């Protein structure tokens, strides 16, 4: 199984996760910029985080044979914190960098005016930089939040096929399917979507414009949920080609709109002895 995880926060995962993901077939991923689990206190905190996403984390993934890309944005949660607002002025510099394949995660968290302002401004940045957009949907009051999200996307003038609306479920998939936007599903171990519910959605709506991700981060999550979904699809009678569409071709088609995906396999001489600014992933390795 060839897997491209279109939403996973590797910064908070271990080298063991990278090894298990590679063994499961993961060869490429997108890491969206998000919050840290606790508030950032200054714009400098974003700068170091963004630099890590395009630098160290990309290098680290490469040591395990996985192509790392990222999306850059002011996330919905921190859009409410005036200490973070200035980061919007820094985004253009990052959106131009290699490996940055979209603007995201943007959207609503608690549906505030500050969130809407940051969301609108970042949709305009995506149009300006000719990049696709990853939109997060709120976990509470999901249907109303998703409908309002789609209105803001429509008002921005961005083409719907350049937008993925993520964290969908049975309640919200229909309105997004009708909008022409791509549909993203985060498969979690014990809450929200699981792989069986995902299979049922794929049966009803087909595989077109469908993205499945693990959204694994520092919370209870599982970086192998993409593989688990592929296996559940096969068990339910989907063909290998349908699994490949959902787990590989679709994310490649969506993030390929950036013109910045790097998917060629690593030459075999690249390995864990390599360094990034003098640091390697080795710790006390035997000589
Ligand atoms: Zn996320």
UniProtKB/TrEMBL annotation:
Native source species: Prauserella marina
Superkingdom in the source lineage: Bacteria
Gene Ontology MF terms: hydrolase activity, acting on ester bonds; metal ion binding
Family of the protein in this entry: Belongs to the metallo-dependent hydrolases superfamily.
Pfam annotation, one family: TatD_DNase
Descriptive protein name: Uncharacterized protein
InterPro entries noted in UniProt: Metal_Hydrolase, TatD-like, UCP005295
Record keywords, A-Z: Hydrolase, Metal-binding
